[in-house]
């Protein structure tokens, strides 16, 4: 195939936190694929990338549903894969956009895995992760010296969560939007609740930074919320 697919990380939300490589590639893209979870959900990644696109670039917002129905998921993935393949067969330069970094909890990972079975050219362009941006925003060092830093999806099971926290000096808790009270309880048991901060929608206009997470009733967690925590103070 003559076309090429670029998996492009556009950063956490701040329009200026996008790499020069990503910007330069977007200027020469024929088709932009922006994943969405539903018909009523706008693509944040697309809003970040849009100022850098050439005027005649085609924009496609493909739906990747958030559902536990495997048949529905498989059908959507297969249809979207075939659609992207058809663009590449036409020799198009295609950008698949993703918030943060393409290789971290990203829809792009599944697309990459499916397309890798075909004779296509793919290039992945890294992006700034939400937790790195959140750490800078909150002045919260992620790790120093011999610290063990663990990235944990807050959606994982209780036992897995507890085990990961137990062996870590510092943690990044991503996907913090449900079961916040239980999560804070686990952090307290593991000595991680006293030195922690929650950043929601980092880099977005409605960003929030909450430095006291010990009272779950005061926390306003949304889909793009991340907690940074450590067992020892930063010493700053």
Automatic annotation (TrEMBL):
InterPro entries: 4pyrrol_Mease, 4pyrrol_Methylase_sf, 4pyrrole_Mease_sub1, 4pyrrole_Mease_sub2, CobI/CbiL, CobI/CbiL/CobIJ_dom. Keywords: Cobalamin biosynthesis, Methyltransferase, S-adenosyl-L-methionine, Transferase. Pathway: Cofactor biosynthesis; adenosylcobalamin biosynthesis. GO terms for biological process: cobalamin biosynthetic process; methylation. Pfam families: TP_methylase. It comes from the Bacteria. Residues 5-210 form the Tetrapyrrole methylase domain. GO terms for molecular function: precorrin-2 C20-methyltransferase activity. Belongs to the precorrin methyltransferase family. This is Precorrin-2 C20-methyltransferase.
